[in-house]
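Annotated sample (chain length 236).
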Amino acid sequence: MTRQYHTLSLLLNFFVLLHGFQLQTVHRVTSRPVIRRAMEDSSDNIERRNMLIAVSTTLGVTPLRAFADDTLPQVKVATTEGEFVIELHPEWAPKGVSRFEELCSTGFLEGAKFFRVVPNFIVQFGLPADPSLTKKYPNLPDDPVKISNARGTLTFATAGPNTRTTQLFINYRDNPFLDRQGFAPIGKIISGMDVVDKINAEYGEKPDQRRIQLQGNSYLDANFPRLSAITKTSSS
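Output written by the structure step:
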């Protein structure tokens, strides 16, 4: 770590102590330090947000949105474990955001199971209860990776370049190695990450994705009856 970067870190930590922010530094591909707030519910006011931005600018770093932004689309996801809210970021991945909004607005995800749950890594979903719905969504061209796969970010699963369809995952931890593999986050959990953490992990990676694609929930309900599921999605 350079002396300049060390000084910057000390100044940021001092700012955290003064104003109660929980911050961490991450890096874009440009290696410029970026400030982001840990993804959690917040009642902090706009004055604090503006102060953070002002200090960031003075220190010559780029602030990532530290608070939920009312101008950005949000989706409330109701599940068998409770509700969580996703803030979508079209500036990160416009194609991915557009596809996810369509999946939510059409009810595609309602009844879908969280079929792959790997603790301390990711939870995956996006195969519909009715498998006939899948054919409506062709492969989606890639978005470039503009933000890291940090804990709480929502990202489309892929099987290679330009293969995104309807499957997504939420990162349980910071997974920066996924950035290098082309996984582009489309949004982040801004409320209810504790609910995401409670999604049933007892079946791990046992459900067969090919059989889910062919049989939908009839296969899952018969073999993995206690999987957590999405019950409703709505604009928030």
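Annotation: Residues 1-8, 14-47, 52-67 have pLDDT under 50 and may be disordered.
Annotation: The longest strand covers residues 82-88.
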